[in-house]
C-alpha cells in the first residue's frame, strides 16, 4: 500500500530560494569547479593559473613561465605575457583585473579576440582559484606600470592600485589554498613536475621553470627547467624512455584545416601495451574524444591498406584489428581549435565532431606517404601487428578452452578458493595470499560471512613481458581471474566483480614486495578499472610481536621499526619476535592484526597519473636495469634484515 509522505511544516516560498552571491557558489560547492577537494583538487588550482599563462604562449606573447612552491605551501606563478588587462571594464564599471578574479565566466576567451585558441573556455579559472584560497595577491606589469590587488577568500582587500613603474610585461599570481576547503595542503613537487613537463612538451620552445623553495636548507631546494624544441616528438621519446623502440625515428605528422591544427607523434616499442596521450588546446583529454577516434580509425585503415597493397598480407588473411595495430604503440595527439567542446570544467573528453574527420583524413594521407617513403619502418610495424593478431587468436582459443573446461567442472570457482557466504559485492572482500601456510591461517582466522581467501601457488607471471594468451595459461593468474568473475583484458567488466575489496596480503619482506608488484602490474595492465575505481588494497601485517618481560599473557604488535622503538621505550628488555612470514602467525593473531576491520590497517591503491604509473611499471618490471637501479637507490629505505 502506498503511503503519503508526511508533510514538512515549513513554508516553501520566495524566502526558501537561495541566491549565492559572487564566489559563494564556488566555496559552497568546490567539487563542481575543480572536481575534488582532495590532493588532486589542490594541484588543480596551480593548473588553472598556469593554463592562463599557457594561453598567452599560444597567442604568441609568453615565452617563460615560472612556478615556485614557497614556504607554507604558497604558490607563485609568473609569466612574461602581456599581463592581465587593468583598465576599467566597460560593462562592469570597475577594474578588469578585479573582474577576472571575482566574476565567474569572465575572460578573454569568449570571442572578444583576446585568444584564438584556449584551454580555459569557461572563464572560471582565476576566480575559482581566488575563491578557494585563504589569500591571493596579483601583480600585473603592463603599460609601463605595476598594478596590484589582493584578496581574502575571494573578497577584495582593496581596489586595484598602481605601485610603481616597470619596463616589462606579465603577471605574477601568488596564493595560499584555503584549509577550510581542502583536505590536504601540501603540494607534491613530482606531481607538479609531471604536469608542467607535459605542457613544455606540448608547446615547443616554451620555457617552464619549477622550483621547490620550502626547505630552510637551500641545498634541498629542487629546480627543473624544461624547454623542448622537439615538441611532442620529444614527448614520445620521453614516454618511451624505458622501452626499446622498434624503429629509430619518431613519426611526426601534422595538418591544418580552417582554424584547427592537429599534430601527432608516434613510435612503436617492443612491448605489448598501447600508450596514447591526447590533448586539446593543451588540456589532457583523459577520456579521449573525437581526435583520438579519428586517429585510431585511420591508423587501422592505413596499416591494413598498406599491407595489402604491397602483398605483405595475403588476400584471404583477415584484416588486422585496432587492438592489433596499436600493440606497443606510443603516441601523442595534440589538436588546437577554436570553440573546443569539452565535457565539463575538468575537460576530459573532446566532443567537436569536425576534428574527427580532419584527423582521420590527415593521418591516412600523411602516414601512408610516410610508409611508402620508409618501407623498412612500415614493414616492421606491419609485422608487429601481424604477430599481435596471431597472439590475439591464441588468446581467444585459450579463453574458449578455459570456458569449456569451466563448464565441464562441477564447480566453476577455483578449488583452493575459500569463498564467503555473502553475495553482495558491496559487502565482500577477497584476500590474495601467497602460499598454503599463510592461506591456512587466513582461512581459519577470517570471518567467513564476508571474507574470501585465495592462496596463490605456481609460478607468478611478469605480465609486463607477456601477452594476454600467456595469462590464460598461467596457473597462478587464472584462478584469480575466475574468482573475481569480471573477465580479463578487453573483456574485463568491473560491474561483474564478485568482491568489493581485493586485498593483497603478502609477507612483509623483499619476496612479498615482489609478489605485490607482480600482482599490481597484472591489475594495471589487464584489469585497470580495479585500481581506477578503488577496489585494490594492500594489507599491513605486523613486523614484530612484543611480549613485556614477566607478562607473557600480554602481547603487542609493531608495524614498523619506528613503532618498535617506541614500544621498547615503554617495555625495555621485552621479548621481540620478528615475523618473517604470515604463516608464523596463528589464525587468531592474523585476524586481530591484519584482517579484523576494527583493528587492521589497509592501504588503498590509486592512480593519480596513468602516464607516470605506466612509466613506473615499465621501469620496475621491464628489461632495462639502469633506471630500475637508479629508482631503487633513490627510494630505498634501510632496515635490519634477519640473518
Give structural notes:
With 643 residues, the protein is α+β, with helices and mostly antiparallel strands. It has 3 domains: 24-226, Heat Shock Protein 90 (2-Layer Sandwich); 232-392, Ribosomal Protein S5, domain 2 (2-Layer Sandwich), CATH 3.30.230; 413-541 and 601-635, Rossmann fold (3-Layer(aba) Sandwich). Helix content is 36%, strand content 19%. It contains 20 helices and 22 strands. The strands form 4 sheets. Strands 1, 2, 3, 4, 5, 6, 7, 8 and 9 form a 9-stranded mixed sheet that branches. Helix 3 packs antiparallel against helix 5 and helix 8 (290-309) packs across helix 11. Mean pLDDT is 86; it is low at 1-8, 10-20, 109-114, 119-123, 407-411 and 638-643.
How many separate domains make up the residues? 3
Tally of helical segments? 20
- CATH homolog superfamily of the largest domain: Histidine kinase-like ATPase, C-terminal domain
Overall mean pLDDT: 86
Fold-level CATH name of the largest domain: Heat Shock Protein 90
Judging by the overall fold, what is the CATH architecture of the largest domain? 2-Layer Sandwich
Shape category? globular
The percent range for strand residues is 15-25%
What is the CATH class name of the largest domain? Alpha Beta
| Weakly predicted, low-confidence segments | 1-8, 10-20, 109-114, 119-123, 407-411, 638-643
Sketch the major β-sheet: 9 strands, mixed
Helix amount: 25-40%
Structural class comes to alpha+beta
Query: How large, in whole angstroms, is the Cα Rg?
Result: 29 Å
